[in-house]
Design the sequence.
């Protein structure tokens, strides 16, 4: 009886090369999503040369407790009313130096937009979603006022101009033109949003 031949061998010599090529292919073609995060300007590390005295009326205090309730200027407030309250504070113009402000000039509120500071503080047990919602409303107050002035001066929204300016695909000539316009609007309503240290729950 003739001897049976064994099963044919598979040449695996190039399998490592194929696996390596597939690995390179997937590394090159796969996109990894990254979180954009929050755009915030951090204060400088160096302390100021002179002590800056800030009047209490120029600080708009917003506190969030662990239950998600808002205490604005020591008064309970619904989150839907926060943006308008913040805009009224920023646009108040108590000292009359702001030529573009349309506020009530309430002597007990902020002197002008350059001195107005919004202080946001939350409890350690505050829900993250609540904190971000409140923060978005406060940033929205700045953007609404900036949009108003950008429409008056340049006929378009500030948020649109800023997005185009920050877009790396925008041609350099257009970005250069937008640079001074964006800075001018930012200087009119500087975003002074102080995020205070979280308080310990009682």
Sequence:
């Amino acid at each position: 009886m003739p001897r049976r031949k064994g099963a044919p061998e598979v040449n695996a010599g190039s399998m490592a090369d194929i696996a390596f090529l597939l690995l390179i292919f997937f590394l090159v073609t796969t996109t990894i999503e990254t979180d954009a995060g929050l755009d915030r300007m951090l204060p400088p590390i160096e302390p100021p040369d002179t002590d800056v005295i800030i009047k209490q009326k120029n600080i708009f205090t917003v506190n969030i407790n662990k239950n998600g309730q808002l205490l604005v200027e020591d008064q309970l407030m619904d989150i839907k009313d926060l943006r308008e309250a913040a805009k009224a504070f920023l646009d108040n113009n108590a000292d009359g130096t702001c030529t573009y402000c349309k506020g009530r000039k309430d002597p007990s509120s902020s002197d002008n937009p350059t001195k107005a500071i919004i202080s946001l503080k939350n409890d350690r047990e505050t829900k993250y979603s609540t904190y971000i919602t409140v923060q978005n409303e406060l940033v929205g107050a700045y953007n609404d006022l900036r949009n108003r002035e950008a429409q008056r001066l340049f006929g378009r929204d500030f948020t649109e101009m800023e997005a185009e300016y920050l877009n790396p695909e925008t041609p350099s000539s257009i970005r250069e033109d937008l640079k001074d316009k964006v800075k001018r609007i930012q200087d009119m309503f500087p975003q002074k949003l102080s995020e205070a240290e979280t308080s310990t729950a009682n």
Summary: The mean pLDDT is 84. The first strand starts at residue 59 and ends at 64. The CA atoms of residues 57 and 108 lie 6 Å apart. Residues 128-154 form the longest helix (27 residues).
